[in-house]
Design a protein that fits this description.
This protein has 230 residues and is an alpha/beta fold. The chain has helices at 23-35, 48-58, 74-84, 102-107, 120-131, 139-149, 154-165, 170-180, 185-192, 196-210, 215-224, and strands at residues 14-19, 39-45, 62-65, 89-94, 112-115, 136-137. A six-stranded parallel β-sheet has the order 2-1-3-4-5-6, with helices on both faces. The longest helix is centred in the C-terminal third of the chain and has 15 residues, at 196-210.
């Protein structure tokens, strides 16, 4: 069963598709997002196949998906949504015990990974960041990716990351740190008193010079290089 939200929200609200096979979890997440005043749950799905169908029908800003769902798991659903619904960003919302799936989720195009056990503010901030085109990893997930998900010794990876960011200009390193903190281009522009087009150019240059494909991978480099506060 799917339901469309009938709540009245401002026109600038981020539109969210929520997919989880537990109705109580969906109700709790819907309440948290609704309390923010900037998000609107436009549809809910109880399985992965329905999530893909509703994403195609509603074209939400964000598809927020659980991993363990019937018919089609959340990871496969995420890959299908990324491939077939341009303009919809994907974030995973799950338990930390499923950390082994982080690498596949991010590799499949998800730009957010949030925990059900996290703080409600973290959930709201994560959805907003992903909707705005930024990457957002729960702090525990980010640490997992750095310590477990990338292979190699931690000190070696930190040294490699510092070497990689050494080629960046001071402003580019500053932008990279803010990308790692989950800020979108408009938020970075406001923080650094730059126009958004300039920030977009900086981000593109940073991705190119680091040799990474997306903001998630750049955020990981930023964490490892110590550019993001713990």
């Amino acid at each position: 069963m799917s339901t469309a939200s009938t709540a009245s929200t401002v026109s600038t609200a981020f539109r969210v598709l929520l997919a989880d096979d537990e109705a109580l979890v969906r109700a709790g997440v819907r309440a948290i997002l609704g309390s923010s005043g900037v998000t609107e749950v436009v549809a809910e799905a109880g399985d992965g196949r329905e999530a893909v169908e509703l994403a195609r029908a509603h074209r939400p800003d964000v598809a927020l998906l659980d991993i363990r769902m019937p018919r089609l798991d959340g990871l496969t659903a995420a890959e299908e949504i990324v491939r077939t619904v341009p303009g919809t960003s994907v974030a995973m919302l799950t338990t930390f015990s499923e950390g082994a799936y982080v690498t596949r989720a991010l590799g499949g195009g998800a730009t957010g990974f949030l925990l059900k056990s996290g703080d409600p503010y973290e959930l709201i901030a994560g959805v907003r960041a992903v909707a705005a085109g930024a990457a957002f990893l729960s702090p525990k997930v980010a640490r997992y990716v750095i310590d477990e998900g990338l292979g190699g010794g931690r000190l070696t990876r930190e040294a490699q990351a510092r070497s990689r960011v050494a080629v960046l200009s001071p402003r580019e390193r500053e932008v990279l740190g803010l990308v790692g903190a989950g800020l979108s281009n408009p938020e970075i522009a406001a923080r650094l008193h730059l126009v958004e087009g300039t920030v977009k150019a900086y981000v593109s240059a940073v991705l190119d010079r680091l040799g990474v494909r997306n903001r998630v991978q750049a955020a990981i480099v930023a964490y490892e290089a110590g550019l993001v506060e713990s």
